[in-house]
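Model: You mentioned two targets. I'll fold them one after the other.
Researcher: Yes, keep them separate.
Model: Target one:
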Amino acid sequence: MKKKLVAMIAAGAMIASMVPAMTAHADGHTVAMICDSSISDGGWGMACYNAMMDAAEKCGWETMYSDSIAQSAYYDTIVSYCDLGVDMIYAPGNQYTDAVLQAAEEYPDIAFALLNGGADTPEKAANGNVSSLLPDAQQIGWIAGALAGLMTESGTIAFIGGMELDTTLAKYAGYGEAAAFVAEENGKSVTLLDPVYSGDFSASDKGLEFAKAMMDQGADVFFGDASAVDSGARQAIDEANEAAGEVKIYDIAQPADLLGQNDCVIGSQVTDNSVLIELSMKAVEDGSFGGETLYGTLQNGVLSAGELNKDIIPEDVQTAYADYIQQMVDGTFMGGAETEAE
């Protein structure tokens, strides 16, 4: 056990979070989260951690986590938790797929919940102990894109990604198609710049660099899928707005409601992954976990639009945006375009 604990420390595990889980496991269930970004990044890592904590509180589970771990440590960190006897591994990102599938084959009695996992990933698990939790990436892009299409004045919008994952590509595509549709309906046109990828969700300095370059190309509305990188981009946008003496370049945050975190944030796309994690926990408890993809959509309440910055967004735009969101819920947006979850 001492050797395993040393390995967990090396992988970035938080000992403070381990102790209650280790002492209480005999009387209940335990979930362990691994994350390559920080749980205090103000973005993806924080939102995914909070989702786990919310679900665990509802279900009475103990929690453990390791954050800011390197890609080379994914598998070893998962195995360290498996050897401690956790009931479920929660891996929030498609980038963990290979490590999850390898560990799932070696630990058939442990459940693996892969957030943003591929729809076909569960069937690749020989032991049937993997489920994908898949928020509808296209709808996520739509929620941000509709607001971007309404708010852009320059006609140029931007997207920053962490890694070139399938889900990130789908968010980019949805963002672009919704922005173009909404802009055209309102007598404007939109150009979506080519996406840029940091390759690292923790590199806030790259967010600063990317945002400055894209603002130089005329971008006035940003959306990202890059965690701390997005935070760096918002810093650069705030600095540009401060230099100009007014907020004219905007950011749309995700996956939590970050209104007020930065002056440039005009709204957020919100993903309540706790709903999907809670369903996974209940499936573990009743013995039905594994072999399926659980989708999160606007229709089942996993996805939503956050609060709008009403000091910046005109009232008529607020009304138009609310109408577009309702169309998405009703399935009539863009003439009833199908989403990946359908």
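Model: Target two:
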Amino acid sequence: MVILLMAAPLAAEKPAAGTAQLPAADAVRIREFYRLAAAIQDRIWPHWSATPAPLLLVTNETEFLTHFPEPPAGFTKVGDDLWARPRQFPTGLAAAFPAFGLPSVIVIGEPANTGTKTSTPWLFAALHEHFHQLQDAQPGYFKATAALGLARGDTSGMWMLNYPLPYADAALGVAFSHLRDTLLAALREPDAAKFAALAAAYKAERKQFFARLSPDDRTYLSFQIWKEGIAQYTQVVAAEAAAGYQPTAAFAALPDAKPFATYGQKMRAKTLEALQHVELATAKRIAVYPFGCAEGFFLDRLDPKWKDGYFRHPFTLDPYFE
């Protein structure tokens, strides 16, 4: 069954006296997220709209939950499809995970408390996390993730952030920088024939780079590129897909709302600029965001149908480079 991500009137019911109320600007942003997702998501990933998108907004004092099938204990209903509880998560969080069991929930703070800072970037950060919900919803995803064998006793999931990849290894850093530059050269080449030659060179160099890694290190880096890099790619492509999107008057009236027309172009340019300067030793895991995003751009040129196999080959992009 396809679930349409249509916005519910988040404060349609009058809350009981003394209960928390969702700030008006937050209600506007949440409604716009569901409206924007419904407009563009299936143009980016087939059937993305079938993935539930519950969202937990973390404010300074209160957490507000919407679009969750059965609100867990501890929440009080404060509106139509809106529940609240005292804050438990950090206000700067932007993540998607099964906080209350499946389906995974987007847990995100208000723009001022997160890296997004303003309303328009917040929308696309939420879409980034919604893509993680699509990943999490794949059959057997969590069992297969555990089967990678990288947790090493960690049951909290923090191994995904803290895995000890040898980021500081000087030779690995030099090899990564060269691989990064080869990828950028291919992406910047407008001529199709020259791009094909650069793409072949990149494929060969990518194999050499990953051959430097131990089996577990290779599995971890491949997983991060597949998971976070392509989520970042999806965030940028979503912004580009929204170039012609007309937001509601309420969202456009927010003082920090940015125009949609050129935002995606700016995001792509900013991502490639970030990649140009990223160093493995200093960026560590964060390097996978611009790098994996750029590999998504590369695959768009190499094989426009590459997404058809993305979920058939989980946790690695290697099949595209063989």
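Researcher: Noted. Anything on target two?
Model: The CA atoms of residues 21 and 78 lie 7 Å apart.
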